[in-house]
Amino acid sequence: MLNRNSAIKENFKIGKYPFEDKIEIVFSENHNLLIQQIAAWPDEISNVEKLFSDELGVKQNIDFNRGEIFKKNSLWRMEPSKWWLIGSTIDLPEKIGTSLELSHAFTSIMINGEKSEILLNRHLPLDLRLDNFPINSSASSAIHHVSVKLFKHNNNEFKLFIPRGFALSIWEILLESASQFGYEIKDN
Amino acid sequence: MTSVRKEKYGKINRDKVLGFTWDNKEYFGYEGDSLASALLANNIKIVGRSFKYHRPRGVMSCGVEESGALVTIGSGSKADPNVRATTQELYSGLIAKGQNAFPNVNYDFGGINNYLSRFFAAGFYYKTFMGLPPFEWGKGTGIWMIFEKIIRKAAGMGKASREPDPDNYEHANDFCDVLVVGSGPAGIAAAQEVAKKKLDVILIEQDSILGGNNLSEAEFDASLLHNQLESSGIRVMSRTTAFGVYDNNVVGALERVTDHIPNPNSKLPRQRFWTIRAKHIILASGALERHVAFNNNDIPGVMTVNASRHYLNRYGILTGNNIVITTNNDSVYQTALELQEAGSKVTILDSRKNVNLDLPKEIDVHLNTLPFSINGRKKIEGLDVCKATDKNNKNTIICDQVLISGGWSPIVNLVSHRGIKPIWNQENLCFVPGDIKENITVVGSANGIWNKNDCIESGLVGANEAMNTLGFHKKEISFPSVGGWLNPIDTLFEVKSNKFPSKSFVDFQHDVTAEDVRLAHREGFISVEHLKRYTTLGMANDQGKMGNIIGLSLMAEQLDKTIPEVGTTVFRPPYTPVPIGALTGRNVGKHFRPLRVTPMHQWNIDHGAKMIEVGLYQRPWYYPKKNETLSDSYIRETTIVRKTVGICDVTSLGKIAIQGPDATELVNRIYTNPFAKLPIGKARYGIMLRDDGMVMDDGTSWRLGENEYFMTTSTAAAAKVMSWLEELLQTRWTDLKVNLTSVSEQWAGAAIAGPKSRDVLSECVLDSNEISNQNLPFMGVLQTKLKDGTPCRVVRISFSGELAYEMYIESDYAHGMMDILWESAKKYDGCLYGLEALGALRVEKGHVTAAELDGRVTIDDAGLGKMASTKKSYIGSAMRKRGVLNADDREMLVGFFPINEKETFNAGTIVCEKNNIQGQGIGRITSVTHSPELGHWIGIGYVNGGLDSWKDVTLVGADPVRNKQMEIKVVSPHMIDPEGKRMYA
């Protein structure tokens, strides 16, 4: 098997880039991204949810734009009848929906740190305040007119999914903006 | 005017001395100074020249309404013209200079305009230089075209740098429950009241320190306020101007991040453009003090009264020794006392006959008295005054400064952005906000409330109104009344002069005089909108903050109407100027638009590709060998593909996964040709039409499984096709069980084309037998593995007309796939080829792309009519049968050769009959190339009636844009291997 090649490899320079001796953003990339898109037929949503419960241990049905994070994977409801399973795959009976691998379609960047929310709001017109965008929330929006998806894993801990072809361009803009806070690029 | 810094006054930091340069001379100020206060402290009187007459101008205010002290900051690429010295913070090393003057603002040759002013009345350029005898008799604009350049050079403000802006800017978003604009008494009260209830509050202040009009008070201490507010949970944004209010409570704001820092860190943006979304907005934007129009009311030393108080108590500057204050309202008396206490001789002229106040004994107060004319040219030497009832008898008061208060205008601009018409309040002679039906509350003097305690009260009430609308509580609320002075204001907008031409200014920035307004009236420009455009009143960068009301009052007088009957112009964003850099943010240079690259982008560059932008994509254009030009390179690449093999990155094609039990039904409904019986493991070329029967796009669909297809689209139409299919599923065919997902980014693709492509491919996959002609016939699809075990998809398909394949692999493996393919291709003397060679190959073969399928052609026009099924219904099948789309003389796809084979032609050439070269001709050439196979230039395109109508006829290719004509002939579009022997080999 060939090795995977990151879309942002050309400008993914591991190291610390402080601003006035401070580092308030930490970036890393999920190099082995695994995304399974699961789409349920409208009349089969309850069966898909049951499958999630059986296979993944989902305790409560996940609302639209919300997710649940497990030890090794996470499940996010991206549209009313579409989920992303990240980190593993499950078998989906054809009768209840369709399954599609999108692991190479996106570049997943983790953004942590005290100023991560502020950095994201430099580009995203999303209300990321905790009351409005609690942990385990997701949203689809756009950076520089490029459609992106954002997951909140924890306070000041986000995952940004950028379409692969635009990832390098958006990554460079993020670094440019982050330089005013000081940032670190970490290997994952 | 002799202005001096006073000990023990002001809120500046005298421990920190700042050096700055004004018109190439060095001066000093203190931390906390504005540029204007520092200039005043250094007794610099003339800081600008007026727009048209080049009259000397001094500092006239202390805020954003400034009309005199417009200066240029910085130099070279950092030169920033038209900066208001009153809002520019002083910093060490600041370089400022006067503008619109030669050699400088003190001695300006342009000042001669002042003596010619009778010829430069409003709109003079509309009539003076047109039809000017003896050059033109009564009409014509020839002379104007000459004079225009001179006029434009003589008039104007500062000059922007011609160099690229070296600074960076950024956009930002924020959200809050309540946004308070303005940190004066009302704004602070409102913010604190809302914050008590733990709501998320943002307080915006355009100034560097908080306090608003409180800063004009000696005892007000601003130093702790910022921290106090932040500790109560309020998010404070100073140096930030709310410049516009938009739909759904969106506020546009500009933050000046480093404009006050001598050598800012380059990582910081110079300015930040905020979009703030609030659930409720409280506007505490304050009010501006007005001038009064009278002769020479612009001489340096004229200032608003409240500005002088600010300079004293904020900056510690006494702006004059011998000051005359002229007023029509109560607001000036406290200032007069403070100026007198600070050491000035103060005289008050009050236009009112009776004033019920404890008038200070130390100060000369002249009731029923008006300013008539200021004496002096570059500085004030005296003021001619007269009784309001007798303008013939004038006295002169010797003074060095004239402070004016003609009343106050609430800042209704922001609320006006929402289309809310301001209402004239006759009692207070000002416009106040009209009825607001949105979640916006106006408080304080922005609502016409003058008394400080009433302003604070209105802030508290405004906060409660906000909480009412947000459903936080339901409280009875009652705002303090508009006004608040003990004595009514007197109507005084202008003191008429019997001099002509009078220099009684209404709009200082644009040199609009009271006489200009009357001229506009005489010439019929009586509508307020016409008045504005004819005189340019209110069109300078202060947008009429100082002059609009006076202009309206003068027009009302001429029309014998009231001010509200004349109306007011609508205020539009921005409230204060927003630099272009801030509007663009980070979308400049390489990030002007998002850059899209294929997964083998770097691989292509590493292998010598020259790239070209195609839409947002970067694609390999050609791969030059040493010293090769574009032509050399693509001709070589095309030749090699025809002879042996070439490899090309085709990732940019759109790719859509179509899944579900009704996938076949969907595909069959959108393509013109039948797909219902396409076997698994086969692909088919398809054309899809729009509803109107015209071609929308072409592409292939591969059947991967019983319920799964992999559709490719053209690069240009990828997003359009995806949206179209989604629309069909969501609006017309809701019964179909189909899921669509764009997988354009998931898969990287490469074309392997040429007679040796099978050999190359056989070496690259795990089982070479899979690639045999029998196992993988034309349009066959294979899901297999590269020789190292990485899964991939292969389809036998040809865009070049040669034996060819396309291989797709998951994007992260694209580099590896290219390495494997290229290693193999090199053994067969193959090449990498780019977009230019790709185009040459397909033109030779007569294959269409977006250049031919441009939305104007039918499937028959494109020569693909045989692909239109007569047995099934599909999108566009009914409308394509319209008579007009089947006329015999419709354009049809053909090929073109030059008659003289040494000649070249361009795409866009119009095809004409020999003796009728005009208009749109009889056709057009859409794509051209040099054909290595044929040895000359060829083209494809359309001609009326197609090949049959023009076979063996010599036509003309007319290229009027490039001034070129040549003889051409029409041939079949399939110029090589028309039987397709090569691709079926």
What keywords describe this structure?
heterodimer; A: 188 residues; alpha+beta; 2 domains; 7-stranded mixed β-sheet; 5-stranded antiparallel β-sheet; B: 985 residues; FAD/NAD(P)-binding domain; Gyrase A, domain 2; Alpha-Beta Plaits; 6-stranded mixed β-sheet; 23 helices; 50 strands; 21% helix
Walk me through this protein's architecture.
- The complex is a heterodimer of chains A (188) and B (985).
- Chain A has two domains: 15-32 and 105-186, Gyrase A, domain 2, CATH 3.30.1360.120; 35-101.
- Helices cover 18% and strands 35% of the residues of chain A.
- Chain A has three helices and twelve strands, in the order E-E-E-H-E-E-E-E-E-H-E-E-E-H-E.
- Chain A has helices at 45-56, 116-121, 164-178, and strands at 15-17, 25-29, 35-40, 67-69, 74-79, 82-86, 97-101, 106-112, 138-143, 146-154, 157-163, 183-186.
- In chain A, the strands form two sheets. Chain A has a seven-stranded mixed sheet. A five-stranded antiparallel sheet of chain A has the order 4-5-6-3-7, with no helix packed on it.
- Chain A starts with 14 loop residues before the first strand and ends with a strand.
- The mean pLDDT of chain A is 97.
- The model of chain B has no long low-confidence stretch (mean pLDDT 95).
- In chain B, helix 11 crosses helix 12 (528-535).
- The longest helix of chain B has 18 residues, at 452-469.
- Chain B is elongated, with a radius of gyration of 38 Å.
- Chain B contains 23 helices and 50 strands.
- With 985 residues, chain B is α+β, with helices and mostly antiparallel strands.
- In chain B, strand 2 and strand 3 (25-31) form a beta hairpin.
